[in-house]
């Protein structure tokens, strides 16, 4: 395999950020299944001299529930290593004194327990999946259109993700719907928002050019990381599609078939 | 009342095109109710020397069923005077040999009876209302994303309309959702598409500058008509909102409180 730009930079790496769904596991109705080799790959990475963090736009469960699911799959992971949009949104809402109308999956509602929600003055949407009924979207629309200054937060801007049986629409699609309906631009909390990535960088305490992001979403993982000065590698698992490799605006620093191959390459080049 | 540009042009008018929902009647779960004065206004207009047509983005019923509903409300109207998106879409599908996956309201499905639908190679969405479930939108998305050249038709591009109890999301919102999900631009069949208005103009056989469009949708009725060289007046009924009068890109040629006032003004200025 010819050396590519990300392989050249592997020796100077100090940390790796991993996307979760589509990199560690494939989502499914039964909670999902690990992608072959990923459990072992995470273990090897955490045993190396590299810092490891997990950065997800997952908003269907609280971080605690979500991390417990990954642990049951065999992953060496804990809550403090995981960055997800809902806790970041709660911080923003409190800072700005905003009371959200929530259109989110039931499982993530407890993340918002500490936030005042009566008489809402903004809308927060997450990956609500089948909760994105016409009625629920219309209810969120009516809150927004009734506000003098409509404020819409979207927990990520993903287009779709892969579950066992195929591709499923993600929150970004409904964000676009409400943006158009109300002539408003959503504030995105989650990848690829630079503010969101910055929280992970702050926690790692290292420079962005010393960090590699590995994800299956070309725009939100790879493009978002590159925008912050990191390297970004796309795995050919999860929602990866061959057309990603000819994307008009985002070019990954490298491609690997899966996380196992990425970690094997990284550790080999670092002589570990 | 000061003379405005549309009033100056009233004497040279040869025809009037009326939007339906929000101008003739207000939609509602019980089928809707006539807007006060509109039944009489249509009668007076049709008794004048002006040609009258009806142009709607209504896609919840076949034209036959829809017109029968208006007749029951007391309106003097017949099917041949009404232009709606579904029959126009059927013509386009047949012309281009396309087989649609339909995401439309049950009531309009019979309009597509004569179109081959097996093994779909395009998607047609209409105002599907509560049929816009997550599952149904995802099904349409999967058809589109699976096509080498995704083709999406949207029966109108409206943002919302008014029903008894408030504003409801319209087809344009879901068009934007699928456009974003699949990186595709929808082909709009219905107002404000110029091709759609042209069918009405062809039927009337008069020049566009001799025609006045009266509607409650600033962008789709008024803006669409103006784009084709007609005058466009907005009624302050239906989905009208005061902020329309300060819209950044579309300025109506005039405002009236309702259709009755528009017709009263037109006939008075023409000495009828």
Automatic annotation (TrEMBL), chains A, B:
Query: Per its UniProt record, what Gene3D superfamilies does this chain match?
Result: HAD superfamily/HAD-like
Keyword Cytoplasm belongs to the record = yes
Name one molecular function that GO assigns to this entry: metal ion binding
Task: Check the record and name the Pfam families matching this protein.
Answer: Hydrolase_6, Hydrolase_like
Chief localization: cytoplasm
Described by its record, this protein's role is as follows: Phosphatase that hydrolyzes imidodiphosphate, 3-phosphohistidine and 6-phospholysine. Has broad substrate specificity and can also hydrolyze inorganic diphosphate, but with lower efficiency.
Q: For this protein, what reaction is catalysed?
A: diphosphate + H2O = 2 phosphate + H(+)
Question: Which compartment or compartments is the protein found in?
Answer: Cytoplasm; Nucleus
Write the record's keywords in alphabetical order, separated by commas: Cytoplasm, Hydrolase, Magnesium, Metal-binding, Nucleus
> Which organism is this protein's natural source?
Oncorhynchus kisutch (Coho salmon)
The EC category is hydrolase
Q: Which InterPro entries match?
A: HAD-like_sf, HAD-SF_hydro_IA, HAD-SF_hydro_IIA, HAD_sf, LHPP/HDHD2
* EC number(s) recorded for this UniProt protein: 3.6.1.1
Q: What is this protein called?
A: Phospholysine phosphohistidine inorganic pyrophosphate phosphatase
Instruction: Give the UniProt family note.
Output: Belongs to the HAD-like hydrolase superfamily.
Q: Which cofactor does it need?
A: Mg(2+)
**What gene does the UniProt entry assign to this protein?**
LHPP
Q: Which GO terms describe its cellular component?
A: cytosol; nucleus
Q: Does the keyword Nucleus apply?
A: yes
């Amino acid at each position: 395999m010819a050396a590519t730009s990300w392989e050249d930079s592997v020796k100077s790496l100090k940390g790796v950020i991993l996307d979760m769904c589509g990199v560690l596991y494939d989502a499914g109705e039964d909670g999902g299944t690990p992608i072959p080799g990923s459990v072992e790959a995470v273990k090897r990475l955490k045993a190396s001299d590299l810092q490891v963090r997990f950065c997800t736009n997952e908003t269907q469960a609280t971080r605690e529930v979500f991390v417990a699911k990954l642990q049951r799959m065999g992953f060496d992971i804990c809550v403090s290593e995981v960055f997800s949009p809902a806790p970041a949104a709660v911080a923003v809402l409190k800072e700005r004194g905003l009371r959200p109308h929530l259109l989110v999956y039931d499982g993530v509602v407890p993340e918002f327990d500490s936030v005042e929600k009566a008489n809402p003055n903004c809308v927060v949407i997450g990956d609500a999946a089948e909760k994105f009924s016409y009625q629920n979207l219309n209810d969120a629309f009516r809150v927004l259109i009734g506000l003098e200054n409509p404020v819409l937060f979207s927990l990520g801007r993903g287009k779709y993700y892969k579950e066992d049986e195929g591709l499923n629409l993600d929150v970004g699609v409904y964000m676009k719907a409400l943006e158009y309906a109300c002539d408003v631009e959503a504030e995105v909390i989650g990848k690829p928002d630079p503010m969101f990535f910055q929280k992970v960088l702050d926690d790692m305490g290292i420079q962005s050019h010393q960090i590699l992001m590995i994800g299956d979403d070309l725009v939100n993982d790879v493009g978002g990381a590159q925008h912050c000065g990191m390297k970004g590698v796309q795995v050919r698992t999860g929602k990866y599609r061959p057309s990603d490799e000819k994307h008009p605006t985002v070019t990954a620093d490298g491609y690997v078939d899966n996380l196992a191959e990425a970690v094997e390459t990284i550790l080999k080049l670092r002589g570990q």
